[in-house]
Specification:
single chain, 396 residues, Neuraminidase, four-stranded antiparallel sheet, globular, disordered N terminus, disordered C terminus
């Protein structure tokens, strides 16, 4: 008997992946498809819907990649703003602000006219905010009109007041649409795409991390093993920091998010594995709630490129498992204006905890920007008990 146990220990030591188990435990029953075969059979959660911007016939008709932050007692919302369709010359960065999360100011462009010489026909893509050294910092990608191009790069700009912005500073080549995650030790972690033809022959997701005070330097590229890259177009990485590691989630074509784990705060990453979380191939957002809960919000659906519903998944054990999900938005919605790459639906969310609410900003049909406000009280663990929750059934 003792010899058998010794052999078992040796075998487990030689197979760490078998011993370790999944990066995130997922109870697949919570994502069981409903009558439409696409949307999980989950309960809807109460929310208040407010519009930041609505497209009109005589104004910009493309909106995407929105993000929120609070700065100097105001909420700021930024997004990619195009005249007709996506990734067309003249696409700008647009900003609106709010004191209460319901009424929003008129939209203005981030940069003054001619502030960036030679960029009139470039495409600007929002990549979210960060408050850094008491300055509002905006990250964005600028492309020459083609996303996968060697001149496509990530930049940042800063403001003392949210109105006047510094000239952009280039960080690295790549296509980025998600803001950085600030880790407990002060490191920044950010994910995007490799863009040169040479790089994309062997790589897809570009993960970078930052140390130091100046955002103009101190960036390094993380080590990542992706496996079969043909299953990935845009990876659009997003990260969740847990007690002993950092988890990365990645968009792809397999029908569920890919997942990886870093044990050294984002410097190196384990090979991709399947997460068990459905994905219709769209941007998603990951974040933390007060008390240690984690969440993932996106088009967690069972059909490729279908964005008919926004689904919120909740972890009550600090990201170790996902066992609850809710429908945030699933009202029928149809675009009013045609345009390149535009799709119907509630899509490309970003989450932000503000006061007693989780604010989820998202585009609507890639032409409007709206915020779904959820009460944190409604997201508390069943019976107020945190830790690994037990599956208790789904709505029939």
């Amino acid at each position: 008997m003792i010899e058998i146990l010794k052999i078992a220990v040796v075998l487990l030591g030689a197979c760490p992946l078998l011993a370790a188990g999944p990066v995130v435990e997922v109870d697949s029953r919570i994502y069981k498809a409903g009558a439409d075969g696409v949307t999980p059979l989950a309960s809807s959660i109460a929310s208040r819907l407010s519009y930041v911007y609505r497209a009109t016939e005589d104004n910009y008709k493309f909106c995407h990649h929105p993000a929120l932050i609070q700065f100097r007692n105001r909420l700021f919302c930024v997004w990619s703003h195009g005249k007709v369709g996506e990734d067309e010359p003249g696409q700008r960065l647009a900003i609106s602000t709010s004191k209460n999360g319901r009424q929003w100011t008129g939209v203005r462009g981030v940069f003054a006219e001619n502030q960036i010489p030679g960029a009139e026909n470039h495409v600007f893509v929002a990549a979210g905010f960060l408050v850094w050294q008491e300055k509002l910092t905006l990250f964005f990608t600028m492309t020459p009109g083609k996303n996968f191009h060697p001149d496509t790069a990530l930049y940042h700009t800063q403001s003392d007041d949210g109105h006047h912005w510094s000239n952009p500073t280039r960080i690295t080549d790549g296509f980025f649409i998600n803001p950085p995650l600030l880790l407990r030790g002060g490191r920044l972690l950010m994910g995007g795409e490799y863009v040169s033809e040479e790089d994309r022959e062997t790589k897809r997701a570009k993960l970078i991390y930052h140390e130091g005070q100046s955002l103009s330097s101190g960036w390094s590229i993380a080590k990542l093993t992706e496996g079969d890259i043909t299953r990935i177009g845009y990876a659009e990485p997003n990260f969740m920091e847990r007690k002993h590691d950092v988890v990365g989630f990645f968009r792809n074509y397999t029908g569920q998010l890919l997942v990886s784990r870093s044990m050294d705060s984002g410097q190196s990453w384990e090979p991709f594995t399947d997460s068990g979380i459905p994905d219709s191939t769209a941007r998603f957002a990951v974040g933390s709630l007060p008390g240690g809960q984690k969440y993932l919000v996106g088009n967690t659906l069972h059909k490729k490129f279908d964005r008919r519903a926004l689904v919120l998944s909740v972890s009550d054990d600090r990201g170790e498992s996902m066992t609850r999900c809710f429908i945030v938005r699933n009202e029928p919605t149809t675009k009013r204006f045609e345009g390149q790459h535009k799709l119907d639906g509630w899509q490309y969310p970003h989450g932000y905890v503000w006061k007693n609410k989780l604010l989820i900003v998202h585009s609507v049909n890639k032409e409007d920007v709206a915020v779904s406000a959820l009460r944190l009280q409604d997201l508390k663990a069943p019976n107020g008990k945190y830790g690994k929750t037990v599956y208790t059934g789904i709505k029939e």
